[in-house]
């Protein structure tokens, strides 16, 4: 990375090589960090953050879970995210705010509380490369996601990603693009760094928020877009074999965006081609960034816009309140074996 690249560290912008941490930093030893991954898209109106306020809200939620006092307001973090993209003059970017326990002692709970905050902005294209068009070949990992009440899956904390690394490493060794993990109950959970959706008998389904998944912001966007497109949707506890039964499957996340799955454990998903529901959701999602999909949800914000006004009030919710309500409704309905969102043919829907 060139030394002209600017990093925001503890309140000011610094050249790449000056943004350093001490080797005694607590987070280096114990994984005590919380972070976000955000995207800025190059839109016809210039660079636009995607759901910045929601990412900041989840960052504060993660910090709250781990007792980390960020020391800035959500509005200040938002402003710093925008500033680092502006300082690097980037048309698009992957933005990484990271808050961690710094030097202050090697005790499990450090004696001195030193919290550091850095924000990086890097160029980052398609996470799974060609798979966005062709589909990814994935495997079911032999590693499980953490059991309930071990690592809180709604929080996005550095140490929790050791589990994700085991899943991703095993997949890579086996020649797969990604690993899908089961929960401790043997039910489908999520990818190493993505949420998982399947299309089963025409219904879009995803494991519920109580299944050990990160409550992904892209997941919530997919659910919202599916509702908008009239695609039948439900959250359902799913067994592993649903992967081999599905007509379509895809992974989603800020880095992965919407990446179709072509095969699982070398078993072809559906016809092996990107299916109509996945395609409709991809079109609606990527359409947000090239102007084909109207941003009726206020998800896109410019580098000079203060999108955080409504974040200050309640940083405790990991995703927007409306999404939490969706989840409850959907879960209750799923338990009763009902589909909440009624189907229209996705191909008939317009964005
Ligand atoms: N699950 C895991 C384990 C992840 O790391 C990610 C990426 N943050 C996701 C799901 C997707 O979350 P989001 O859409 O908020 O990026």
Description:
The chain has 351 residues and is of the alpha+beta class. Helices cover 28% and strands 25% of the residues. The chain has nine helices and 17 strands. Strands 8, 9, 10, 11, 12, 13, 14, 15 and 16 form a nine-stranded mixed sheet that branches. The longest helix has 15 residues. It binds 4'-deoxy-4'-aminopyridoxal-5'-phosphate.
User: Uncertain regions: pLDDT < 50 for 5+ in a row?
Assistant: 309-351
CA-based shape: globular
What kind of sheet is the major sheet? 9 strands, mixed
| Oligomeric state | single chain
Helical content stands at 25-40%
What value does the average pLDDT take? 89
Order of helices and strands: EEHEEEHHEEHEHEEEEHEHEEEHEH
Unique bound compounds? 4'-deoxy-4'-aminopyridoxal-5'-phosphate
- Tell me the distance between the termini: 39 Å
Round the Cα radius of gyration to an integer and report it. Answer: 20 Å
| DSSP strand content | 25-35%
Task: Give me the number of helical elements.
Answer: 9
The strand count comes to 17
Summing up helix and strand content along with how strands pair, one would put the structural category as alpha+beta
């Amino acid at each position: 990375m060139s030394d002209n690249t600017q990093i925001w560290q503890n309140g000011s912008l610094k050249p790449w090589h000056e943004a350093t941490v001490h080797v005694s930093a607590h987070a280096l030893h114990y994984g005590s960090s919380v972070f976000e991954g955000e995207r800025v898209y190059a839109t016809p109106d210039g660079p636009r953050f995607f759901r910045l306020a929601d990412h900041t809200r989840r960052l504060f939620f993660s910090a709250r879970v781990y007792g980390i006092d960020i020391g800035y307001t959500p509005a200040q973090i938002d402003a710093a995210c925008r500033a680092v993209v502006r300082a690097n003059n980037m048309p698009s970017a992957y933005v990484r705010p990271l808050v961690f326990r710094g030097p202050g002692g090697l005790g499990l709970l450090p004696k001195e509380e030193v919290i550091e905050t850095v924000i990086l902005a890097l160029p980052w294209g398609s996470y799974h490369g060609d798979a966005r068009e062709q589909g990814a070949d994935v495997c079911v990992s032999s590693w499980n996601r953490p059991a309930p009440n071990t690592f809180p899956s709604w929080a996005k904390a550095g140490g929790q990603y050791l589990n994700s690394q085991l899943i991703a490493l095993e997949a890579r060794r086996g020649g797969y693009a990604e690993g899908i993990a089961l929960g401790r109950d043997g039910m489908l959970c999520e990818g190493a760094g993505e949420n998982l959706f399947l299309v089963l008998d025409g219904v879009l389904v995803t494991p519920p928020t109580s299944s050990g998944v990160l409550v992904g912001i892209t997941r919530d966007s997919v659910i919202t877009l599916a509702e908008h497109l009239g695609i039948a949707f439900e959250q359902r506890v799913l067994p592993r074999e649903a992967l081999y039964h599905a007509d379509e499957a895809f992974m989603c996340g800020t880095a992965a965006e919407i990446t179709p799955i072509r095969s699982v454990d070398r078993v072809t998903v559906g016809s092996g081609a990107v299916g109509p529901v996945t395609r409709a959701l991809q079109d609606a999602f990527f359409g947000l960034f090239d102007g084909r999909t109207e941003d009726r949800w206020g998800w896109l914000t410019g580098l000079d816009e203060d999108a955080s006004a409504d974040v200050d009030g309640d940083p405790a919710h990991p995703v927007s309140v409306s999404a939490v309500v969706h989840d409850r409704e959907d879960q209750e309905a799923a338990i009763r074996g009902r589909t909440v969102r009624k189907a229209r043919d996705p191909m008939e829907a317009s964005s």
